[in-house]
Amino acid sequence: MTTVTDLLSGDPLTDEGVDLWTSVVEDDAFPARVSQFLIGDPRRMGGHRTDVDSAARRVADLAANRSGKKMHYGGVKLMLDGSIQGYTACLQNPGYYRDPSRRESGTTMR
After folding, report:
1. 110 Cα distance to chain centroid
2. Tens-of-pLDDT digits for all 110 residues of the chain?
3. 0.85 cut: is pTM over it?
């Protein structure tokens, strides 16, 4: 393994979070590279609040000024239609297996 990825973090919104991640990952003893992604809805990132424009500026700034030899910033994770395990994804027929003992509701494309 050479790279690990944090796909759902609010830590890059704060200087303290960036400093912590960078100090750990850039240490010579840390054995891998890390790519950290902000979630596409910045209002939900780890309890931190910001608007979309501010989050976009922050991602661009981190990519240009804080990425290092092993710590990489600059990605954004987008969730476009939900998740299979949360029964919120839109699937083609036959859709979901519905366990009669569970009450989840999902959608199916027709």
Report:
1. 30
2. 678 877 666 677 788 888 999 999 999 999 999 988 876 554 555 555 667 777 788 889 999 999 999 999 887 776 666 777 776 777 767 666 666 676 655 444 44
3. no
Are 42 and 13 spatial neighbours (Cβ–Cβ below 8 Å)?
yes
Question: Exposed e or buried b for every residue in 68-89, given b needs 16+ CB within 10 A?
Answer: eebbbbbbeeeeeeeeeeebeb
- Residue 12 structure tokens: 């890059």
Q: Give which of 68, 69, 90 is closest to 79, Cα–Cα.
A: 90
Radius of gyration of the CA atoms of the chain, in A: 18
Q: Which residues, in sequence order, are CB contacts of 69 under 8 Å at separation 6+?
A: 26
Residue 68's φ and ψ, nearest 5 degrees, are -120, -160
72 with 36: CB under 8 angstroms? yes
